[in-house]
């Protein structure tokens, strides 16, 4: 019997390929790369899918938290964009709440 437990791991440089594979799969959010809330409205209008992917990868390489992956039988099957509030530039409100994290996407 296969393991039915979902394992949760933060996205980092070691599992970037899993994140990339999940996002590029059929139905994946490859159009935004979960950058929508991380950019200003003007930045969103003036960027391409390729740029958004590059920007999110730069965050991972810089060790900025972007979210978590859910794994089943060692395959990434789920995504949750959870990160420090200050990294979501379009949310509005007080950006100086260091201990506050926000969830803006499930996939």
How would you portray this structure in words?
- By secondary structure, this protein is of the alpha+beta class.
- It has one domain (7-106).
- The chain contains 3 helices and 4 strands.
- It has helices spanning 16-24, 41-45, 49-61; strands at 7-10, 68-72, 75-84, 101-106.
- It has a 4-stranded antiparallel β-sheet with strand order 1-2-3-4, with helices on one face.
- A hairpin with a 2-residue loop joins strand 2 (68-72) and strand 3.
- The protein is globular, with a radius of gyration of 14 Å.
- The model has no long low-confidence stretch (mean pLDDT 91).
What topology does this entry show?
Layout: E1 7-10, H1 16-24, H2 41-45, H3 49-61, E2 68-72, E3 75-84, E4 101-106
Antiparallel strand pairs: 1-2, 2-3, 3-4
Organism: Leptospira interrogans serovar Icterohaemorrhagiae str. Verdun HP
Protein name: Acetyltransferase (GNAT) domain protein
Largest sheet geometry: 4 strands, antiparallel
Care to count the β-strands? 4
**C-alpha Rg, in Å?**
14 Å
> Helix content range of the residues, please?
25-40%
* Coarse morphology: globular
Provide the low-confidence segments as ranges.
Answer: none
Structural class computed from helices and strand pairing: alpha+beta
Helix and strand sequence? EHHHEEE
Number of structural domains: 1
Question: Beta-strand level of the residues, as a percent range?
Answer: 15-25%
| Average of per-residue pLDDT values | 91
* Number of DSSP helical runs: 3
What is the rounded distance between the termini? 26 Å
Numbering strands along the chain, what is their spatial order in the largest sheet?
1-2-3-4
């Amino acid at each position: 019997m296969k393991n039915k437990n979902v394992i949760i791991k933060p996205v980092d440089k070691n599992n970037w390929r899993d994140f990339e594979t999940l996002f590029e799969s059929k139905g994946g959010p490859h159009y935004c790369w979960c950058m929508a809330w991380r950019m200003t409205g003007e930045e969103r209008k003036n960027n391409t899918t390729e740029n958004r992917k590059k920007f999110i990868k730069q965050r991972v390489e810089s060790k900025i938290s972007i979210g978590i992956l859910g794994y089943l039988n060692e395959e990434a099957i789920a995504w949750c964009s959870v990160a420090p509030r200050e990294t979501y530039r379009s949310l509005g409100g007080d950006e100086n709440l260091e201990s506050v994290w926000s969830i803006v996407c499930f996939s």
